[in-house]
Design a protein that fits this description.
The chain contains 11 helices and 11 strands. By secondary structure, it is an alpha/beta fold. The protein has one domain: 3-Layer(aba) Sandwich (Rossmann fold), CATH 3.40.50. The longest helix is centred in the last third of the chain and has 15 residues. The structure holds NADP nicotinamide-adenine-dinucleotide phosphate. NADP nicotinamide-adenine-dinucleotide phosphate binds next to loops.
């Protein structure tokens, strides 16, 4: 039995789909489970986690706390250890633990990674680059005729398709050969946000403009939008790190695990954006 946390999210939903297609027994965890094969559990409710991990061999561990913290990872690890879970595949992030000026990029993922590595369970670490699916938030902005806010300037990133992240996760969950490995997951090309916008406009046949949002402006806008200061800090730090060119990284890890090249941003856009009379609208 495989427990998929974050099962209703961007990556987790594809992990669930692939496990289902592969005939692997799984349990999809969410606070609002959608149906069969699902378990209702909350990282903030230890009793629900204990129920979720009962009889489980491997866990796909995806946390997305509103305020950056390793607490959700630690809670799941505690329950998993107690239940005798054998292995953990943790979704972390590229750049985790890198020093950038006075700050550490992905400090909360770093603490969680450390806990996973020392948990006594077998582990695989997945460190994806920027998700192609982040662009799904652009649909409403494009429809409104507004420019897409660009927090990373001309900084290029190895934008990766969440379906590839999920496919690697499923390999790691089902084949012990991946134990003890850390995979940095990128797409096949380095793209800045304006370059992504140009590709997207070719796919949807409508103009997609961007507006640069330097760190101080991004901080102001995100705070004004009501995000907790610690979440704003983490977002702006990661974006400034990428803006400075530190995430201009491509790896062969997706191809090495899957035996095929990673999908391009354009592949993702073609699969997920539709052109209709209403505008850019999103298919997923
Ligand atoms: N976006 C990027 O470019 C990027 C790049 C690298 C790494 N990452 C990492 O990717 C992760 C986010 O992945 P994602 O985009 O797939 O997430 P997502 O789409 O935001 O989904 C979050 C998932 O977590 C579940 N969840 C949230 N709070 C929960 C709680 N208290 N208890 C139980 N489940 C809870 C949600 O389920 P319910 O709401 O149904 O309960 C949902 O399934 C983060 O760790 C982030 O650091 C992101």
């Amino acid at each position: 039995m495989i427990l998929v946390t974050g099962a209703t999210g961007t990556v987790g939903r594809h992990v669930v789909q692939l496990l289902h297609q592969g005939g692997h027994p799984f349990r999809a965890m969410s606070r609002h489970p959608p149906g069969a094969g699902a378990v209702r559990a909350d990282f903030d409710d230890p009793a629900s986690l204990r129920r979720a991990v009962t009889g489980v061999r491997a866990v796909f561990l995806l946390t997305a706390p509103a305020v950056p913290s390793p607490d959700h990872d630690l809670a799941l690890l505690a329950a998993a250890r107690e239940a005798g879970v054998a292995s953990i595949v943790k979704l972390s992030a590229i750049g985790t633990g890198e020093r950038f000026g006075e700050v550490t990029v992905g400090a909360w993922h770093q603490a969680a990674e450390r806990a996973v590595r020392t948990s006594g369970m077998a582990w695989t670490m997945l460190r994806p680059s920027s998700f192609a699916a982040n662009a799904r938030h652009w649909a409403a902005i494009i429809d409104a005729g507004q420019p897409v806010p660009n927090l990373t300037g001309d900084g290029r990133q190895g934008v990766v398709d969440p379906r590839d992240i999920a496919a690697v996760a499923v390999e790691a969950l089902t084949d012990p050969v991946h134990a003890g490995r850390t995979y940095t997951l990128t797409g096949p090309e380095l793209l800045s946000v304006p370059e992504q916008a140009r590709q997207l406009e070719q796919v949807i046949g409508r103009p997609v403009t961007t507006v640069d949002l330097p760190p101080a402006d991004a901080t102001r806008q995100l705070l004004a939008a009501g995000l907790p200061p610690a979440a704003v800090d983490a977002t702006v730090t990661g974006s400034a790190w990428a803006r400075a060119g530190h995430n201009a990284i491509l790896t062969g890890d997706v191809a090495a695990v899957l035996g095929r090249p990673p999908a391009t941003f354009r592949d993702w856009a073609e699969a997920h954006f539709v052109i209709d009379n209403k505008g850019a609208g999103e298919r997923l």
